Amino acid sequence: MSRPLRICTIGIGWLLFGCLSVVLAQPQRIRPVAVLPFRYDGLHIFIRGVIHPYDQDTLNFIFDSGCEMNILDASYAALWKINPTKKAGISGLADGMTYLPVAELPKLQLGSAKLNRPSFYLEDLKALQAGPPAGETGPMPVDGILGYPLLADYTVMVDYDHHRLVLYNPGPFPYSKKGEVLRMELNFFTPIIQAALPFANGNTLKSWYHVTLGGNYGVLFNAPYVRKYRIDEAFLQRTGEWPVKDMLKTIDYFNGVLTALIIGRYHLRNVPGSYSPDVDDGNPDREIAGAIGNEVWRQFNLIFNLSQHELYLEPNSQFSR
Asked: How far apart are CA 226 and CA 297, in angstroms?
């Protein structure tokens, strides 16, 4: 049986798009394919695009590196009279799986960039609503989610300082010396990097973690990893329990603050940490500690270069705040 694809749980809002300026590339710059302004609500990145030949509708997409597929609100299938080509399994963070219809569409246009014949899982996204843009009232719908397929086709720069997503053709990249390049691999269709977790007794545990830009946490540990390595001992303090509705059920999370998290040469203190007995988003063939989410990544400007197995990190204006 093939492995079900995984989607992250998300929440919505808007901030205004900021100014554009180049901060990450070295002087020998390469020309971007597209520069996409995004709105950031403190948790998620929102970009706009159109699906041809239905370009009369401009759509609002969340971009999340932790989503293994593209998702489109199911209402568009009815509006555009699209017949799904198949159904495929999809899972949340807890055990269990559901099946969603999948449609193959002609082209997704994101500024001057495009994805040809992208597949979209069709799901009801009506519960996801963004706050109104400037000068308007009422909620704004979220029409879809973009994930791994965008990373597979382009080198993707995420510039939180200036609220822009910059897409480049795949290949070697002239990174700035201000940051650090880390080895990035894939766990199925999710990027993973190595990070280290210090304990109060002086020991440090190094493991692989999913890179999940849209995750509403600092570090979310997998339950078997917590039990095996007694991750409780890495928590500086406990901050309580938190029920969250996943795709299939409500999950109770235990939350606290980690003494530190080390990613490359960057040492982050007092990082929010969570785990649940119901959460195991791992891999039977490779030990995955868990996922690193928005509370960490928003402190960096990043470049996902899947073609070179590289993740570039450069501390931004929010670093260590």
From this structure: 22
Report strand pairing: 59-63 vs 45-52.
Answer: antiparallel
Q: For residue 107, what are the contacts with CB-CB under 8 A and spacing of at least 6?
A: 51, 52, 114, 115, 116, 117, 118
Q: How long a stretch of residues is the chain? A: 321
Residue in this structure with the two tokens 């510039």, named with its chain if needed? 159
Percent helix, strand, coil in the chain, to 5, is: 10, 50, 45
Q: Which parts of the chain register pLDDT below 70?
A: 1-28, 88-98, 129-140, 240-249, 321
Burial of 138 (0-12, 13-18, 19+ CB in 10 A): exposed
Query: Model's pTM, two decimal places?
Result: 0.86
Largest CA distance in the chain: 61
Residue 317 is which amino acid? S
Q: Which tens digit of pLDDT belongs to each residue from 256-291?
A: 999 999 999 999 999 999 999 888 887 888 999 999
**3-class SS of residue 127:** coil
